[in-house]
Structure formats: C-alpha cells, structure tokens
What we know:
Elements: H1 9-19, H2 24-31, H3 35-43, H4 50-60, H5 64-68, H6 73-78, H7 85-92, H8 108-123, H9 127-147, H10 151-170, H11 174-191, H12 194-210, H13 214-228, H14 235-254, H15 258-275, H16 288-301, H17 305-314, H18 323-339, H19 343-356, H20 358-362, H21 365-376, H22 385-392
Amino acid sequence: MPPYPGEHTGARIKHARKVRRLTQRELADLSHVSYSALTKVEQGVMPASPSVVAALARALSVPVSDLNGQPYVQELRQDQLDGLINPIREALNVYDLGPDPDVVPRPIEDLEADADKLCALVRATNIKQVAADLPSLIREATTVVHTAPVDRSWRLLASVYRTAYDVTTKLGFPDLCTVALDRMDWAAQRASDPVLGGMRQYLRALAYLRASDYKTGKRLIGLGMSALQQAEAGRVLDVVTGQLHLGAAVLAGRDKDKDTAEGHLGEAARIAERTGPAEKVHWLSFGPTNVGVHRVSVLAELDLYPEAVEQAQEVLIPEGWPPSRLAHHHSEVARAQMWTGRTDAAFKSLLAARKLAPQQTRYHPTVRETYTGLEAAKRQMPHDFLNFGAWLGV
C-alpha cells in the first residue's frame, strides 16, 4: 500500500518529492517534466498523464502504483473485495507443494469448463465473482498437474494463472499479478505450448507498460514473437501475433515513438483482416475492432488528443463486444475528450464505462485522473458529477 494515500495523484507526487528532499525545480529537471506542469499536477489543477506519472516515478525511484495510489484499499473494503485477495495469494503460493491431500479434484473436463467460465466472467467484468471462485479452482488445477502431469492439465493450470493475472491487475495489485505471470510461465513451459509462452510475454510486457518500463516491455514483445515461431501455423497463432503487435504499438506510443507505433498497428490490421473477429481466441478480444480501439489509445499516448477523439468516432463497436474492453475504451476516449476541452462528452464517456463495467471502472487509474481533470476544469458539470466522484473515492 502506498505510504501516503492523499487525495489525488498530485498530492502523492508532492509527498514523495518531499520525502526525497527535492524542490519542484529539481524534480522537474530530473524527470524532464516541465516545472509548470509539475506545479499544476501537484496542486491538483491539472491531471497527470500516464507518461508524466511514469517520468516522475522514475525520477523519484518509486513504483508508479505508489503515485497512482493503488491498490485503492478503502474502496476495495467497501466492495468487500479486499478479503478475496489473500486467498488468491495463498493459492498461487502452493504451486510446487505437490497434490493437496485435502483436495479431491473434479474431472479435467469440468475444470476446463470452469476455467473458461471465469475467463468469460472477467470479460463481462464480474470481477468479484471471479475473485471468489478462483482460489479453489487454482488448488484443484494444481493438484491435477501433480497427479496427472500431462500437457492438457498444464494448459489448464496456465489458463487459471492467467485469470489470476487478470483479476489482480484490474484490482491494482501489481506485485501479485507478477507472481501470477511467473506461475503461468512455470505451467506453460511444462505444457510445451509456445502460444501460451508468447501470450505470457505479452501479458508481462503490459505489466511493464503499467510500470512505465517501456524498454523492457519492448524486449518482452520480442521474446514473445520469438516463442511464437515454434507454434503451429493457423488462426490461433495469427491472433496472438496480432495482439503482440497491438501491445507493441501502445508501448511505442507511450514512449512517443510514433513511426514504430504506426508500424505495429498496420501489421495488426493486416492480420485482423485474415482472422476477422476473434474475441474468444484465448479471450484476447482480437480483431478489426480491437485494432481500431488500440489506434485511439496510441494516439492518446502520443498526446494527439484531437486525433484520438476523431478516430474514436470512426470506430464501429459491434453488438456484444466484450464489456471489459469496451469500458476500457470509453475510459481512454474520456481522457482524450477532457484534454480537448470536451468536458461534458468526457463525463458521459466515464458514465458509459461505469455502466458497462462498474467494478473495473472504479479501480481504473485513468478514470480517476480524468475525473480529477474534469473537476479542476471548473466547468459547470451535471448534478451527478459529484456523486460519481464519491463513488470513485476521489
């Protein structure tokens, strides 16, 4: 938990700066963030973009999550989610202890069906139910691999660990999502499945994106691509390869490398033309729509906010598209709308994200920063704006 929750990211940045005994001018010089921007962020009159938070975290030698305030413990307690984290942690920690004598696992077909059901629930943003059901499934799948260590059972366990990564990421526990990824690697190697290996590197790259270590994230994308060279040709390989390109595009965008980002987006678009909609292939939501929403994300990461808003208007979202992915898209569109002065539209996008995925939206740091920016804009906002802020805990 961050040492000082504060009221907003700027307050936490100010606290961390004072702990390091740095003046605002010194931190601005160390981070290459303008002095004017830093002072406004600390005062809460300007939101901190992900790239600004990243630069300041590096200069202060603290995790990005400390400045974002994750995990949002008070809200987790209100939603009765905090008590679900430790059972997941404990289940992840027994991976190498052999079969659990207190666990009688069901047939592997039933476990696979449950694992698939949890993946679907994550995409439907029912995080609380997934977090509650996950520990027992991890323990069953762990016992299975120690009693019947065949490729099929190892793939099952890798899938369950991937769900643990999804849940802990969405709830803001980066340390635990790293453990889940390590366990996924452990299982994927034993399954001898290069696709799972490539997926794990993709997810790991996203973790480094959130930690603002873009160089390492890019290297991990490269490792993922190398792992996929051993995979069997076909639609599954295409989907995972395309998703790796999308991850690489966002990393390049956050790193302000426009040409590289556009190159990866172009390659992902070409692959999506072959695969078509493939949202359920490893539950990656890949396809033409996902390429479109990633293009919006990349433009926002490049600080090209008017272009991001314009691109968002061109993206056609098909009926039934995964709520988790669509809510994330609305959150990113809201950020771009805020930076272009479209405060009413930005708040409507936040409300759309909340309606689709309330649990995910409440714990999304971009949503909180966007709300802070809208509040600082001093514009006349709808009467339910303050209610939204109270719900967020801002």
